[in-house]
Amino acid sequence: MTTPPTAPLLSRQDLTLLSLIAGGLQLDVVARRLGVSERTLRRRVRRVCDRIGVIAPIEAVVWAVRRGLI
Fold first, then answer.
1. Residue from 65, 17, 69 nearest 45 by CA
2. Which residues, other chains included, contact 9 with Cβ-Cβ below 8 Å and sequence gap of 6+?
3. Does domain 12-66 have CATH number 1.10.10.10?
4. What global pTM score does this model have?
5. Is the Cβ–Cβ distance between 18 and 48 less than 8 Å?
6. Could you read off the pLDDT of 36-59 as tens digits, one per residue?
7. Mean pLDDT, range 14-43, rounded to an integer
């Protein structure tokens, strides 16, 4: 039997990022709100998607919503 990981998969920053995307904001707007470049934001989104095993940002949003994280 496999035990669940003790550390959360997503940080508070990751969840904020997904919340902004879930709100329908374009990535360039999200980047400005978070004070990072669009390139940095895209890299963060890719890492979040990789961490939870999805391909697209919208899938990451759905994943977080289904788990009650955002």
1. 17
2. 51, 52
3. yes
4. 0.83
5. yes
6. 999 999 999 999 999 999 999 999
7. 95
4 DSSP 8-state letter: P
Going by pLDDT thresholds of 50, 70 and 90, the confidence category of residue 9 is: confident
Q: Which residue has the tokens 């955002």?
A: 70
Smallest CA-to-CA distance from 54 within 65, 2, 24 is with 65
C-alpha dist (Å) from residue 56 to 4, 6, 25, 47, 67? 24, 25, 15, 11, 17
Q: Take residue 2 and report the two structure tokens written for it.
A: 């496999």
Query: Which tokens sit at 44?
Result: 């963060």
Residue 37: CB atoms within 10 Å = 12
14 by Cβ neighbours in 10 Å (0-12 / 13-18 / 19+) ranks as buried
Q: How far is CA 70 from the centre of its chain?
A: 10
